[in-house]
Amino acid sequence: MKFILRLFPEISIKSKPVRNRLIKVLTQNLHNIAANHGFEIKVQPQWDKLMATFGSDESEKTRTQAVRELSRIPGIHSFLEVKEFTFERFEDIFEVAGPIYGPSLNGKTFAVRVRRRGNHSFTSQEAERMIGGMFKAHYPNLGVNLNKPEVTINIELEQDKAFVVTNKYQGLGGYPVGSQGVALSLISGGFDSGVSTYKAIHRGMKVNYLFFNMGGTAHEIGVKQEAYFIWDRFGSSHKVKFVTIPFERIVGQILERTHHGVRGVILKRMMMRVGSQVARKLNAEALVTGESVGQVSSQTLTNLNHIDRVSDCLVLRPLVMEDKQDIVDKAWEIGTAGFAESIPEYCGVISDHPNVCPERSFVEEEEAKMDANLVEEAVEAAAVLDIKAIPENTSKLEIEVETVKELAKDDVILDVRSPDDAAKAPLKDETHQVIELPFYKVASEFGNLDKLKTYALFCDQGVMSTMQAHELKEKGHHNVKVYRPD
Length: 486
Known about the structure:
Oligomer: single chain
Strand order of the largest sheet: 2-3-1-4-7-6-5
Number of helices: 18
Helix content: 25-40%
Structural class: alpha/beta
Number of strands: 18
Radius of gyration: 29 Å
Distance between the termini: 61 Å
Mean pLDDT: 92
């Protein structure tokens, strides 16, 4: 089964050395993807296209797989499914093309389009007239219409080879993965980071993944699955890493020591510091984020400027001028929206009255209240995983956590909200003991509690309490459940 792959137009206008390099990268990517996805492929690079042959059969299964994979490979603008054969006369071409296109001409206008490569005794226009005349004479039709034909018969000729186009498909476009350097995407599992990661891959970057774990194992598993999905669908031509950074201690100090108005900015600055160091270890030249101007308080121009100042690495924001709905629509288009909808949005560092234009000196003063070695500790604790290992890594059965509206007699309520939230709306229960233990301390301090009691974890939305309960169960603490009163 043969396909003609058209190059992304921006590749076609490059100088000869650059074009040759990009074609070489794309050719290697095709071979790598075939190896990863278990199919055979032969690729013949040419100046303005690539000829790709899939498998050794003409089965529908092979065709479906070929179309699916080719439509997801960056660097391919469009591709044609063709029937290849040797010809000597125009009649030889019509003999093959007639049964393919002829029945579709009934009651319709048509045109023949011929593209040639090589030396022939005829022009493309002469070939179109001769072959078109045969169609007009042998199949019912409404005549030739060169401006707006209802049916277009596409034929490509190369020396003594003819290729009758049976189907045409749209490709992904963009540059071949790996041709534009290496990047590190800060992925959270939401709509924005998934789309920004895809856009970086689409523009030819080899993208590694960096996740800041602030919500427990359940959240991490969801983000890993989304990252694997993006890599498997669009970037599997290259080996990349998924890096997890434990961020609970950093979040804890932000909440306990810094002014609420700049917490979001400080959190992002800490992420950029850690991201820069991880990027250096992975030889990545840029960080990729899903930030968009004005979307949240930390994404004003002033705050984005404060965030960028701490990065040793180029920061790329593919969505910086995008509207939220456009981002969501793109997530549905590329297939990541389902992940974004199912992964709870982390909301542990939120300010009641965030400062959208704080002075740089104020941000730095508040940040100085935190321990100086937090970044180095976080980088040292990083867990690095080959992205191909994610399916096995996340295949363990999810542990079920009981959720209750009413408490048993001896249950203890464990309020895992941030200290600010707990202080503003204290949880009072006359019949049950209430213990305040912020979510970022649950993993480290839960073991100090009375092991003979059962703890019902509580937070306002039920998101953080569920995450922490999952985390505790996975660590062997079975005396937990989630409390969601009406």
